[in-house]
Design goal:
Shape of chain B: elongated
CATH superfamily of the largest domain in chain B: Response regulator
Mean pLDDT of chain A: 80
CATH topology of the largest domain in chain B: Rossmann fold
Helix content of chain B: 40-55%
Radius of gyration of chain B: 18 Å
Largest sheet of chain A: 6 strands, mixed
Number of helices of chain A: 10
Oligomer: heterodimer
Mean pLDDT of chain B: 87
Order of helices and strands of chain B: EHEHEHEHEHEEEEHEHHEE
Strand order of the largest sheet of chain A: 1-3-2-6-5-4
Strand order of the largest sheet of chain B: 2-1-3-4-5
Number of strands of chain A: 13
Number of domains of chain A: 3
Low-confidence stretches of chain B: none
Number of strands of chain B: 12
Chain lengths: 458, 225
């Protein structure tokens, strides 16, 4: 039942409202009709009973007059629309029927000697009033047919009900109209929203909207704004990425054409090597872009207990050949295992990007030092003896495609964007400053102190 | 023709330099905006290939300053900034051409040749003085309809002279336009090339203006044969 009621109103607010209002109207109207009917019947019965009693009193007054005939004809009464007689009387004297009206049966109308009663004689129900005559032996009985009474009641009820029966549909129609009119702003709103293009995320006009719906529309507008910002960001990112691909592609094209155009073997070899370098650069750029894109979907991956020392060592080992090729010294300082709860893959990406930057942007022969600290909360510090970064450059790290001006390295400017996003998701603190010991850039990744986020397991 | 290439990306710069050299240009390559500005002001180039996103000084600033100083030097902007508004801004800042990366090397060469030709007020792609015709695109020369074999330097020297048919070109100008940086110039190199050209094209075609330089004779050299 409850489901049924819910289903009734599930679709449209308008339908729901109409169903409830009309149902309530019908219920109230029926109750009122039934009560009035009972009321009217009560009133009518009382009124007619009074009439019976009065008629009996009149008969008592006339009792002294002679009743010539057994059958007493009632005087002609204007009967209106009801042709049949509905009232009958009997006067009993010494248990003998002295006088009766023509309609009255021969048997006593009632066995009672006094007051009202309802009896059934030969299938006809009578309402009877009994009274004693002037002589104590005389009994006056006056009865009225109950079906006649009912007829009156039904006529009254009919007169009462038909205007209401006409009014009900009219009222219903008016309610439908009123509900529709009242809900029109909502319909208009839904039509505005339905007619929107996927790309149109402007705010809905709030002024013409009913006050009750305004919070909803305000929330919708806020949502539109957020979606718009996200889309904008993505669009800019795609544009930036495409833009960044143009230069390496131009280089690849130029070298390929140069290789085709030359007759000199050395020159051709040089161009072909440059071609490979260009391909590597594009590959690197695409890998970084994919890392950023994948990060979105893997941000909620399950974390597991991992040993930072182990992880850092792995990343160092992975990138060491790159450093050795530049004759750089690469070292790690660690006090031993340091267990944390985290996502090893993402943390690996973060460390790899930091170390790759250090190797890339430090000159040949430079020194790179990774220190694993566990002073209250775990931290990883990476410093190098490279040229370092100015405060302005440090503040711009993490801007997409920001590259250090004048650097010969072919980074794509996405490494720090990735580092920042991973750090953000893990609530890690990133601190950059000039290294006191080595003079170059120093980056510290700090885990939060709280057990909740850092969850240091010793 | 001597070109200045301003491009900060090492890989792309080396590719363009190699490719443009193969197309017969002398290419000097700088990697930041300040160096580009200095070269434009100090040296003589036939055209500049300018990247916009240059370190130290943005390419657009280089372009604006060059134009502000009244230099009519043809500038081809080569950039990744591809929005229409950016192209309009580039052209309105004084660029003669605006090309989006990546670009085909042959197209880049053709555009540069066209820019140089227009800068000299020549509407036809084939240069013609008297009975000598020079086609920069194919790097071929004909004299009275017959093809003439020229070495690279000889061709370049003749090209410079034919781009300025009604002017006397000084020896210093010729040297600057024929040689990019770091190339050894022997003291009599220009004379040697002129000598060879006279032998191949007829003695009267290139005239020496003593103490100044060289000029071309515009009358047919019929008296020579």
């Amino acid at each position: 039942m409850r489901n049924f009621v819910r289903d009734l109103g599930a679709g449209s607010l308008q339908r729901r409202l109409l169903i409830w209002v009309l149902a309530a109207l019908l219920a109230v109207w029926s109750t009122v009709a039934v009560t009035s009917w009972f009321d009217a019947r009560q009133e009518l019965n009382e009124l007619l009973d009074e009439h019976l009693a009065e008629s009996a009193a009149l008969l008592v007054v006339r009792e002294g007059a002679e009743f010539d005939d057994d059958d007493f004809e009632l005087p002609e009464i204007p009967r209106g629309r009801r042709p049949e007689q509905r009232v009958a009387f009997q006067i009993w004297s010494h248990n003998r029927l002295a006088v009766k009206s023509s309609m009255a049966p021969h048997s006593p109308l009632s066995s009672r000697s006094n007051g009202f009663s309802t009896v059934n004689i030969d299938g006809v129900r009578w309402r009877v009033f009994a009274a004693s005559g002037r002589h104590s032996d005389n009994r006056i009985l006056i009865g009225e047919r109950v079906d006649a009474r009912d007829e009156v009641l039904w006529a009254m009820t009919h007169n009462l009900l038909w205007p209401l029966a006409v009014a009900l549909p009219a009222l219903g129609a008016l309610i439908v109209l009123a509900v529709r009119t009242a809900l029109r702003p909502l319909n208009d709103l839904s039509q505005t929203v339905a007619g929107r293009e996927a790309a149109s995320l402007g705010s809905l006009p709030i002024a013409k909207i009913p006050r009750e719906v305004q919070p909803l529309v305000a929330e919708l507008n806020a949502l539109f704004a957020r979606v718009h910002a996200v889309l904008d960001n993505e669009r800019r990112f795609t544009a930036d990425a495409a833009h960044e691909l143009r230069t390496p592609l131009a280089a690849i094209r130029a070298h390929a054409q140069a290789a085709i155009g030359t007759a000199n073997d050395t020159e051709r070899e040089h161009s072909l090597k440059a071609l490979l370098t260009g391909c590597d650069r594009v590959t690197h750029l695409i890998e970084q872009l994919l890392t950023l894109a994948r990060f979105e979907s893997s941000a909620s991956a399950l974390s597991e207990p991992i040993d930072l020392d182990d992880l850092a060592r792995g990343v160092m080992a992975e990138l060491a050949p790159q450093a050795l090729a530049k004759r750089q010294r690469i070292e790690m300082n660690s006090a031993g295992p340091c267990l944390i709860q985290s996502q090893p893959a993402l943390l690996g990406v973060l460390l790899r990007n930091l170390l790759d930057n250090a190797i890339r942007y430090s000159p040949p022969g430079a020194c790179i030092l990774l220190t694993l600290g566990n002073n209250g909360a775990p931290s990883i510090t990476l410093e190098d003896s490279g040229p370092g970064l100015s405060a302005e450059q440090q503040s711009r790290l993490g801007e997409r495609f920001f590259r250090i001006v004048g650097s010969d390295e072919s980074g794509c400017g996405l490494g720090w964007s990735i580092v920042r996003r991973i750090a953000q998701a893990h609530r890690l603190e990133l601190i950059t400053r000039r290294s006191k010991e080595l003079g170059g850039l120093q980056v510290t990744v700090k885990w939060p102190q709280t057990k909740h986020a850092g969850a240091v397991l010793r | 023709m001597r070109i200045l290439l301003a491009e900060d990306d090492r890989l792309l710069g080396s590719g363009l330099q190699t490719g443009l050299r193969q197309a017969g240009f002398q290419v000097d390559w700088v990697r930041d905006g300040q160096a580009a500005q200095k070269e434009i002001e100090d040296e003589e180039y036939d055209a500049v290939v300018l990247d916009l996103g240059l370190p130290l000084k943005d390419g657009l600033d280089v372009l604006r300053q060059t134009r502000k100083r009244g230099k009519a030097l043809p500038v081809l902007v080569l950039t990744a900034r591809d929005a229409v508004a950016q192209r309009i801004q580039g052209l309105d800042s004084g660029a003669d051409d605006y090309v989006i990366k990546p670009v085909d090397l042959s197209e880049l060469s053709a555009r540069l040749r066209a820019l140089v030709r227009r800068a000299h007020g020549l509407p036809v792609p084939i240069l013609r003085v008297a009975e000598v015709e020079l086609c920069p695109a194919t790097r071929t020369v004909t004299c009275r309809g017959k093809p003439v074999d020229l070495y690279t330097r000889e061709f370049d020297l003749l090209h410079v002279l034919m781009l300025n048919p009604s002017r006397v070109v000084t020896r210093a100008q010729l040297e600057r336009q024929l040689y990019s940086w770091g190339q050894e110039i022997e003291s009599n190199a220009i004379e040697v090339h002129v000598h060879h050209l006279r032998r191949k094209l007829g003695a009267g075609f290139i005239q020496t203006v003593r103490g100044v330089g060289y000029a071309l004779t515009r009358q047919p050299a019929s008296s020579e044969t």
